[in-house]
Amino acid sequence: MRVRSALALAGLFHAAPAVTFLPGLRRRLFPTLAGMGDPGHVALTFDDGPSPYSTPLFLDLLRERQVTATFFLLGSQVAQAPDVAREIVRDGHEVAVHGWDHRCLLAKGPRKTLDELRKARETVEAVTGARPRWFRPPYGVFSTASLLCMRSLELTPVLWSAWGFDWTRRATGESVHRRVCRDLAGGGTILLHDSDVAAYPLAWRSTLDAVPRVLDECERRGLTMGPLRDHW
């Protein structure tokens, strides 16, 4: 009985930070973690890249609109598409860490978490020449081990306040735009995806279609848009 209780407590301790995934709770109790910053600014962020197939299309669009963003990169993807990762930085965008792969951190122990986060951070920096400052876990789910590891790796956790549900089979440019704008507010952080690594195949097409509409909406509201480094 005592063993079971101890295991249950250990499991709760390991998974406790995952509660911050709940958007409403996060915005009320942890506004900085939710990416709430300058009320006149909106942070634009993309997860799951870089992809040699889709990310360059997003870079072309952002270059045309003269907008920069923060790209949360997977270390394994950077290793497979280093040229695209370097192009992100050359275009003036900010790079951040999204983990080594897209497996939930709750399925990983402390040692594996530390080893993979260090490997991801070092890979991003070695390839792009830019030292990442931010960390966003896969699925937005932290473990206690990941929070402890971030401190030693000098990474700052940040999630989002608005997202487009752009990874689903039913996503369209209009649905992504509508969902983002439903929660869009000055000082917020938008989560979108420039890759289908952890999404329905080719779901990024809906995102690519939605981005100009989101940019137009921010302009209409008088909000500037840029990376997280300009957000606080």
Give your account of this protein's structure.
The protein is α/β, with parallel strands linked by helices and 232 residues long. 45% of the residues lie in helices and 13% in strands. The chain has 9 helices and 8 strands. The radius of gyration is 17 Å and the shape is globular.
In short, what is this structure?
The protein has 232 residues and is an alpha/beta fold.
Tags for this entry?
six-stranded parallel sheet, alpha/beta, about 230 residues, single chain
SSE map:
Layout: H1 2-15, H2 23-29, E1 41-49, H3 55-65, E2 70-73, H4 75-80, H5 82-90, E3 94-97, H6 110-128, E4 134-135, H7 144-153, E5 156-157, E6 162-163, H8 173-183, E7 189-193, H9 204-220, E8 224-226
Parallel strand pairs: 1-2, 1-7, 1-8, 2-3, 4-5, 6-7
Helix pairs in contact: 6-7, 8-9
Largest sheet: 6 strands, parallel
β-strand percent reads 5-15%
Number of strands: 8
Q: What is the string of helix and strand elements? A: HHEHEHHEHEHEEHEHE
The percent range for helix content is 40-55%
Number of helices: 9
Shape: globular
Which structural class is indicated by helix and strand composition? alpha/beta
Q: Give the termini distance in whole angstroms.
A: 49 Å
